[in-house]
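Hey, resending since the last one bounced:
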Amino acid sequence: MIAFNSDKDVVIPTGNEKRVDKIKIKCIQGTLKLKKVRVEMSDGERKEFDTRAIGILTKGMSSFAFTLPGSNNSLRKIELEYDSVGALMVTKRARVEILGRRIDN
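The structure tokens again:
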């Protein structure tokens, strides 16, 4: 869940969730504006993605797919910076899902 303000969250994937080569952010409740998406891979490589083209995500919308660095790495963590906006009394928080395309190995 994401509160109505600027904030930063860190997601630590587990198990098979780490073995992905692309991720996508999907809004499943509320409205938010992605400011930054950063990933850290198992070898320590980090990448920050440009999210200016995404704009505002509302319920049901998703970002484009972000291609993760490295060819044989595991995803260590994802950092999201965002502004959550919306009508107070309708939805208290925005919710997102992080979708990943699994590496077939």
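The mean pLDDT is 83.

Sorry for the duplicate.
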